[in-house]
Specification:
single chain, alpha+beta, Penicillin binding protein transpeptidase fold, Beta-lactamase, 3 domains, two-stranded antiparallel ribbon, 9% strand, elongated
């Protein structure tokens, strides 16, 4: 038995020596390679954001990340409960480790072995700071190794409070906000100095996945994440149960932020589109060296914004030129689908009927009360004019004639045309003639439909991005296919 134990100890010692030699060799080779990034304390003054966005004339957007490059706040002005919220959720042993939490590393390794993936991370606040200011976000062992080396070095140069201060001033919070002062102003319209407990927990919860947990994108998910942060704060002794429950019962209230510039609404759509076509998240997009070239027209955008500002109400709107979006205005959820009402009649009824040769521009139709198996639509003010032309029916948006035509065209045939226009349909009936599409449509869907009429019946999904480049190479180009939905004369 003793001999067996001795053999095991010897073999274990040999394995450990071999691992140490291999690790040391790898370390020396890696540190002397071009891939190794050295610690640069100057990099810690700002987050590493290399994204560039250009208008159609080649000019860069005024300042796409203006709220992320200013308004830094000193550590002693940040509330203690704010600091505690981030430590509780991101790195509970922050004040006891030396840059690397080996307990957490061990747990992550076991989790990754079980799942056969690298899905579980173990980055400390120090490591996150290094990654955000020195490295890329690629999930490679070399990048992770570099991150751990630099984190250990940083811990020797900075105090814990200095590291946490720099981290809070450079972390990305979504919606263009880099740093806690900017985030506090963006979401709550106040300085970080005035953050409440629940607001602090909200911001601490966002940074794991800004797009997913931003309260501007999904209040329900953000609230659940905030409450998790509060629970962790209680578990780690930062708050008591009473304060925890009170904060969890407080709803998230956002400030009504004003537009930063004419370009802000358009930029938001560019970011969403870029994330989709590149299959990256918001953090990856901002931290990658992409140059995005858009269809944005600054003069048209200024005119659109000024025009809407002069009205008594604000609305979601866009301008499409040459089949792509050159300007837009947001008054709420830009992509929310709702009923289009009579604006859908030309797309769902009249142009398809022309295309199917059921009518022509001089056709006449009887405007009268109708009843189709109990469905009896009425005109405005319940008025009917008798025989009238198709042109008059369209100009005056007469309900009965639209329903009559749809009945002849058939709902199924109308849906085929709408689907070609990128408008989803489901279990439609004759009320479709009056704009009642079950899945609804948004301003982009409607704009694309009318753009099709302006482009001789050729449909193309409108985009904001022409192309995306990285390091001089084109990684994406808008090549949306055109679909012939209507013939030229019907569209005309």
């Amino acid at each position: 038995m003793k001999k067996a134990v001795r053999i095991v100890l010897i073999l274990t010692s040999l394995v450990l020596v071999a691992v140490a030699i291999i690790s040391a060799t790898f370390l020396m080779t890696f540190v002397n390679s071009e891939e190794y990034v050295q610690l640069n304390l100057d990099n810690l003054n700002h987050a590493k954001i290399n994204l560039s966005v250009f208008a159609s004339n080649g000019e860069p957007f005024e300042e796409p990340f203006s709220i992320g490059k200013s308004k830094q706040i000193d550590f002693d002005r940040i509330p203690q409960h704010t600091k505690n919220a981030f430590v509780a959720v991101e790195d509970k042993r922050f004040y006891s480790h030396k840059g690397i939490d080996w307990i957490r590393v061990g747990g992550a390794v076991l989790s990754n072995v079980k799942s056969m993936s690298f899905s579980e991370g173990a980055s400390t606040i120090t490591q996150q700071l290094i990654k955000n200011t020195h490295l890329n976000h690629n999930k490679t062992l070399k990048r992770k190794f570099n991150e751990m080396l630099l984190a250990s070095q940083l811990e020797k140069e900075f105090t814990k409070d200095q590291i946490l201060e720099t981290y809070l001033n450079t972390i990305y919070f979504g919606n263009g906000a880099v740093g806690i002062e900017n985030a506090s102003n963006t979401y709550f319209g106040k300085s970080a100095y005035d953050l409440t407990l629940e607001e602090s927990a909200t911001l601490a919860g966002i940074i794991k996945a800004p797009t997913t947990y931003s309260p501007k994108n999904n209040v329900e998910k953000c609230t659940k994440r905030r409450n998790l942060v509060l629970d962790l704060m209680e578990q780690n002794g930062y708050i008591n149960q009473k304060d925890c429950q009170k904060a969890k019962n407080t709803p998230i209230v956002l400030c009504q932020t004003k537009k930063i510039s004419y370009e802000n609404d358009y930029l938001e759509e560019v970011i969403k589109e870029a994330m989709e076509v590149l299959a990256v998240d918001e953090k990856q997009l901002y931290n990658s060296n992409f140059s995005i070239y858009t269809y944005f027209d600054k003069d048209i955008q200024r005119n659109l914004t000024d025009t809407i500002a002069s009205c008594s109400y604000e609305t979601n709107s866009l301008i499409i030129k040459n089949k792509n979006i050159v300007a837009l205005n947001k008054a709420g959820n830009f992509h929310q689908k709702r009923q289009a009402g009579s604006a859908l009649k030309p797309l769902a009824v009249y142009t398809p009927s022309l295309n199917e040769k059921l009518i022509n521009v001089v056709s006449s139709v009887m405007d009268e009360r109708v009843n189709y198996n109990g469905y009896s639509p009425k005109n405005a003010n319940d008025k009917y004019v008798g025989w009238t032309t198709i042109e008059n029916s369209v100009a005056n948006s007469i309900n009965t004639t639209a329903v009559k035509l749809l009945n002849s065209l058939t709902v199924a045939k109308s849906c085929q045309y709408l689907n070609k226009l990128g408008i989803e349909t489901a279990d439609e009936n004759l009320s479709l003639a009056l704009g009642n599409a079950n899945k609804g449509l948004n301003v982009v869907d409607l704009g694309a439909g009318y753009s099709t009429l302006a482009n001789n019946g050729q449909y193309q999904k409108p985009k904001t991005i022409e192309k995306i480049e990285k390091d001089g190479f084109t990684v994406y180009r808008n090549k949306e296919k055109e679909v012939k939905v209507f013939n030229d004369s019907s569209a005309f």
